Amino acid sequence: MMNTIFTPPLYIQRYEFVIDFVKKNKPKKVVDLGCNDCTLLRKLKFHKEIELLAGLDIDCAVIRDKMYELAPIPTDYLQPGDHPLTIELYQGSVTERDPRTKGFDLVTSIELIEHLQLEDVDRFTEVVFGYMAPVAAIISTPNADFNPLLPGLTGFRHYDHKFEWTKVEFQTWALKVCREFGYVVAFTGVGQIPAQEESIGFCSQIGVFQIDRSGGDAPRLQNNVAEEHLPYRVLYNVVYPSLCDSNIFQRTLVNEVLYWAETLKREWLEEIRGRVEAGGRGFEVENEEVGGEGKTDMGQEELYREGQSVCVPLVRLCSCPRVQALSGTVQRLTKFLLENSRVQLTNDGTAVVLVDSDDEDLEWDEKCDNTGTCSFLVSSMENEDWETELGQ
């Protein structure tokens, strides 16, 4: 019902609120309590700053139904992140302590607390803010003050809700959390309030809690997993490919080098074809203009020919943004490529050698005269009347 009167739907606004917070604050470790069908986790996994993404829910079936949608997709292997992303899903209760939930940068609890029995709320509070002690927490819950504005609603908004707090009740609870556990809170929400009902607040009220650092940096709890009982059951665990893995790094770098080398070769040959066509059959091009043979010093950036191969200098490849980001310097790029059999380098190791197999329409004259000039012949590209030539 509520999703039909808000645009975008209220649940999407809640997720977008969390995503905006993540974009701004860039937490590395995030856990979603009451993750349900993992919708929020699926959205958060695309944020490269996150290194650990965890979800917890009491309902095993609902997690199992969607958890494989969190698996890496082909682009994650083609373009791995700088750091590994680990995703962990657990079955368990938010009122139980599990040391694997300590030390997170952000805890989210989106429309969860109202599903707890009132007597369990204190336990939930102590587990989240006293035991888990995240740097920040986002807690959202329905605003009971808003209910009279929802057409056709009688009672609670969901059959499983055990209570629904008014704005005052929610803020009273939140401020008590701050006093007891050393946090500060900012109140906000989603679900735009009617202009004439500003005192009511948002349809879904949100408290953004952050550790109070006014007295200095708060101490972070250590994750002593081996020393404590682990009540949560692991349902799913996956580690995404990343450049921290040396094999993945090598494969990614080589793929980028070969891609850009082929791209530069193709562009260079197209330029040569254009010159040949403009000059006609037997058109001569000065050796230095096409990078002639033997120009393999570290400063050489122009492509050149060796026999029937095209050589792409590493200096030129290192100017490609992705290759430069991966390798850093020409010296490091050379070192990495010398260790990989997929890439053929010139004898002096300064250029990638590519066989000129796709340039069948351009005949290279092997003979260059002493004036520094090489000849290029056009075969299939020339528009000639072969029937006339043969006298037919």
TrEMBL record:
<keyword id="KW-0694">RNA-binding</keyword>
<keyword id="KW-0808">Transferase</keyword>
<keyword id="KW-0479">Metal-binding</keyword>
<dbReference type="InterPro" id="IPR026610">
    <property type="entry name" value="Hen1"/>
</dbReference>
<comment type="similarity">
    <text>Belongs to the methyltransferase superfamily. HEN1 family.</text>
</comment>
<keyword id="KW-0489">Methyltransferase</keyword>
<keyword id="KW-0943">RNA-mediated gene silencing</keyword>
<protein>
    <recommendedName>
        <fullName>Small RNA 2'-O-methyltransferase</fullName>
        <ecNumber>2.1.1.386</ecNumber>
    </recommendedName>
</protein>
<dbReference type="GO" id="GO:0046872">
    <property type="term" value="F:metal ion binding"/>
</dbReference>
<dbReference type="GO" id="GO:0090486">
    <property type="term" value="F:small RNA 2'-O-methyltransferase activity"/>
</dbReference>
<dbReference type="GO" id="GO:0030422">
    <property type="term" value="P:siRNA processing"/>
</dbReference>
<dbReference type="GO" id="GO:0005737">
    <property type="term" value="C:cytoplasm"/>
</dbReference>
<keyword id="KW-0949">S-adenosyl-L-methionine</keyword>
<dbReference type="GO" id="GO:0034587">
    <property type="term" value="P:piRNA processing"/>
</dbReference>
<dbReference type="GO" id="GO:0005634">
    <property type="term" value="C:nucleus"/>
</dbReference>
<keyword id="KW-0460">Magnesium</keyword>
<dbReference type="InterPro" id="IPR029063">
    <property type="entry name" value="SAM-dependent_MTases_sf"/>
</dbReference>
<dbReference type="GO" id="GO:0003723">
    <property type="term" value="F:RNA binding"/>
</dbReference>
<dbReference type="GO" id="GO:0001510">
    <property type="term" value="P:RNA methylation"/>
</dbReference>
